[in-house]
Amino acid sequence: MRSDDADDNAQPLSHYVGASLDRYFESLNGSAPPNDLYRMILEQVERPLFERVLAYNQGNQSRTAAMLGINRGTLRKKLRAYNLDQ
């Protein structure tokens, strides 16, 4: 366990998302922002979410779907889309 884990847990996830977005916008440095930011962010968040929750549930898709609050069909579709269905 990292020594700063306690500090990490002190903030809600939205804090880190907001900070990441602030860094992203700063990194644009005057260049044109993307046109499809919403889709881009969802893809960036969904893949690791599915990976980690699936690993936490030791590959059990039923438990993973229940934990995520989605049905198994939706989970399977997302896993295929991110090539996580192997």
From TrEMBL:
Xref: InterPro entries: Fis_DNA-bd, Homeodomain-like_sf, HTH_Fis, Trans_regulatory_Fis
GO molecular function, one term: sequence-specific DNA binding
Key word S-adenosyl-L-methionine present: no
Gene3D superfamilies according to UniProt: Homeodomain-like
Protein name, per record: Putative Fis-like DNA-binding protein
GO terms, biological process: regulation of DNA-templated transcription
Family designation: Belongs to the transcriptional regulatory Fis family.
Protein keywords: DNA-binding
Sequence ranges assigned to domain DNA binding HTH in this UniProt record: 42-82
